[in-house]
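re the bet — no i am not wrong, look at it urself. input seq straight from the record:
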Amino acid sequence: MLVRVLTNVVATRYVLPLREGGSLPGLVEADDLGMYVVKFIGAGQGRKTLVAEIVSGELGRALGLPIPELVLVEFDAVIGRSEPDSEVQELLKASDGLNLGMDFLPGALGFDPLAFEVDREFAGRVLWFDALTGNVDRSWRNPNMLVWHGSPYLIDHGATLIFHHNWAGADRFVQRAYDASDHVLMGGSPDLAGADAALAPLVDEETLRRVVGLVPEEWLVDEPGFASVEQVREAYVDHLLRRVADRSWLPEVEG
């Protein structure tokens, strides 16, 4: 089996801040001539947001969901010294080193469920994935979906895996029910039963180890309650395996 790795790129130009996100992501050009939306390690949410982006984003990709390519971005804070906004300057200074980038989709539009129709299968699979990862940020107010070349893409998974903000109490999240009442795709009659049958078998130990293994070691060090980075990785794998085995968290969907 081919082992996936995240591409490493070096930022060569800080283009502009993207103020739609609370964490002040920025548009950055890299040495591969690609443009990336970068989430910075120095943002207030910290490194666990970036860990969640990788674990959930790459798990979603393994489940066949459309998620823009993720890369690791080496950022030299000197690049952003011409940025006039003092808040952004402080963020860039605090983000020297390794950060996370998502492939920029030029011309993409924000997803509007009233203007863009998705089929029941897709709606069900997105809802199932969000329920598994506990995504609290895919509401009709803030869909965190884009439409690019006529196809939907899922973005921004930093608000998933909230259990890792309190490992001591993580067990109670294994069976925690998912509230789908605000989910942006609930109006699309999601086929959740079909999604469960198709996707649950794919979330196995091998897949989870591969996905969690993509997280840079430096983002997992010094985690309270763990003696090593490998123990932290094992904790993510164990939690998600137990959650997918239980599935009492599945929301009720009519039809």
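see?? Residues 109-246 form one domain. told u. also The longest strand covers residues 7-17. so pay up
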